[in-house]
Amino acid sequence: MRNIKVTACYRGTKYHGFQRQNNAVTIQQIIEDNLSVILGGQKVVIQGCSRTDTGVHALEYCFSFQTEREIPLKGIERGLNSALPKDISILSCEEVDEDFHARFSCKGKEYIYKLHCSESPNPFMQDLAYHYRRKFNLALMQEECKAFIGTHDFKAFCSTGSDKDITVRTIYDFTVEQNGTEVIMRVSGDGFLYNMVRIMVGTLLWINEGKIPAGTLADIIESKDRGRAGKTALACGLYLNKVFY
Amino acid sequence: MRNIKVTACYRGTKYHGFQRQNNAVTIQQIIEDNLSVILGGQKVVIQGCSRTDTGVHALEYCFSFQTEREIPLKGIERGLNSALPKDISILSCEEVDEDFHARFSCKGKEYIYKLHCSESPNPFMQDLAYHYRRKFNLALMQEECKAFIGTHDFKAFCSTGSDKDITVRTIYDFTVEQNGTEVIMRVSGDGFLYNMVRIMVGTLLWINEGKIPAGTLADIIESKDRGRAGKTALACGLYLNKVFY
Description:
2 copies of one chain form a homodimer. By secondary structure, chain A is an alpha+beta fold. In chain A, 20% of the residues lie in helices and 31% in strands. Chain A is built from 5 helices and 10 strands. Chain A has helices spanning 27-38, 73-83, 138-144, 196-208, 217-223, and strands at residues 2-10, 47-48, 57-67, 88-96, 108-117, 130-132, 150-153, 168-179, 182-189, 238-244. In chain A, strands 1, 2, 3, 4, 5, 6, 7, 8, 9 and 10 form a 10-stranded mixed beta sheet that branches. In chain A, helix 1 (27-38) crosses helix 2. Chain A is globular, with a radius of gyration of 19 Å. The mean pLDDT of chain A is 96. At the A-B interface, helix 2 and strand 4 of A face helix 2 and strand 4 of B.
């Protein structure tokens, strides 16, 4: 049995996230349906590296699947790219060991969150960044975000409804950069709780707006109280950027 | 009478170009209709700096209009940004001399043309770049494009159907840059004929593909023969980038 790892990217605007659902169009379903045709009708289930929410994008997303078909990797890649809608793209396919699993083999991930900081909207970033009209204090955000780095219990940064018992995660790095009207927040870690990045971003923005005092992020983490963190930032600014194996 | 200069940007995908037409939705019409409401019902005609074709974008587009209404500039800007669809954005409004005219006062323009050079499509550049699947020879393109610079009769680079008698234009600069899969061609000049930038780009790409021999661009310009130049490149890669006054 061949085990195949696929790297893809997608614009999540039109989809109800990655994971297959009943009665909603998801990226997994679109890929599985098209892959099945390419594999000559084989029913195929792909294993994604992660769930993503409605409207969230991926610049690098990995999934894996098994097949006995002897179609060349380039044929799978080209076949999928011809068949898939233009908001989903296959970047590469490779053969991997049989014990590789896109989700369980994953050692960490990097997300970016994009803000368009300007009074005027940006017609080219519609659904691709959070349009933030307030003054953005870059130096403050670069200082505050450091509190996230390290191993912490991130229960305060997890939406209710999550099924995760263990809420301890390690954040490798968190940076904030600004280039003109575009701000990019970049966070990497060994794993992320439900809505964790979006709540981290929302909390930083509340600090930026003075709704949460500067210097209190470590206390909020320590409190494990979702009520003390900020609002969950909009999905459209979030991109899964890298998956580490 | 106040004379007001407005700088805007737009994603041209959904519009039949800038200029008002019967039976087709254009950017001019959308702006005029919304501006008229903001000006308390005054019928207003805006003067655009340039026509743009269906699907062409603008990162900086100027238009001007006259009004006797005493609405503050910030009010016009904010009013328009609240009312306009998200693919048209107002960047600034300023009061200018009564003899300023967005089209006739224009001293030159800069366009950029974006290519996405990769086998895989880019879900984030759909309708925003030309997806070019062939190998792109950057050094060759950087060398060849120099033939456009200077004052020439660009009749060979003008679509038929143009009403321009004088086809001499001065190109100030033409550059080609590549950053990963993104190629940007940048051209500035005192004026451009109908489809001129798209034909320049299409001709360079035919040289890249060997369909036109390298080193013959000066001859093609000299020939004034549209039949010797390349194909008109797709509209979706073209952006009006700057307008000089």
